[in-house]
């Protein structure tokens, strides 16, 4: 893939400490925000300093239809909420052919929520699951290591 191609991802592969938890159809929440504190300078009424303070990382939500890999997520989630060590995660955006588009490394991953499928015999929609992860920053190319 050329560097100037648009990144149209078909799936997102999730790995926690290198353990493959399968691919997901949707990924939402990759982002961060810097909190800003405003300070005025005495004698300078026409200017307000904008000072960065904390960085907040939003939770990441991955969704997919229920598959056999759902059991792997359930095992990891159960172990992680029982006081396991914080982990690193990698989310890879991949094309339909499986080619890597880009990836994001997440530091100190903590499970927040797993939502299982809603079963409704009145609709033919796929049974979906959602995994929500909190993290404490990004790592990898472009993120300082």
UniProtKB/TrEMBL annotation:
It comes from the Bacteria. InterPro entries: CHP02241 (IPR011747), Phage_T4_Gp19 (IPR010667). It holds the Pfam family Phage_T4_gp19. NCBIfam families: conserved hypothetical phage tail region protein. This is Phage tail protein.
